[in-house]
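Lab manual, section 2.4: Encoding a predicted structure.

Procedure: take the sequence of the chain (167 residues), apply the prediction step described in section 2.3, and record the output as structure tokens. A sample record is shown.
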Amino acid sequence: MIGNSLSAELLLDRDVTDAQKDQLVTMLGELGVRADARRTLAHRGPAELGWVVLLALPLHAFLSGLGAEAVKDVYTGVKSLLRRGPRDARAGSEDAGEDTSRGVGVAGGPLVLHDSVSGLRVVLEADLPAEAYRQLVALDLTAYRIGPLHYDRHRGAWRSELDEAAG
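Recorded output:
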């Protein structure tokens, strides 16, 4: 739990149900994050395509307040909740008859953390290794200006290709 309560904006894809939204807000609240949830517009631009949940908050305080395991647990919890799909969220059932092994349905995109202070975005993709979360918590986010940050599995490090290209 984070010592001082943080405020966050939770931007959700229109496919996320109201029940899922309420559960996400509750989960974040239990971690000391006061989330204001809203929906995306029906027509998004190319920069927003691909994610289902965007969590905007003071990222440094969030990461340092929680620690690597808790950040991984937040990601796992969000993905698990969204993977269940609309019928499951209403019924509370784990079996909706759809294939969830690949994150089909609502959970198809990554969770994006958006730093409300710097504007930097961090993309949490499926099945990141525990080391990625440990590195993320210790990462100096001020070293990046453009983003977004992705975990490069081959290099075993967080990087922003746009920052690298800009020099």
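Check your result against the sample. Helices lie at 18-30, 59-66, 68-83, 85-91, 130-138, 161-166.
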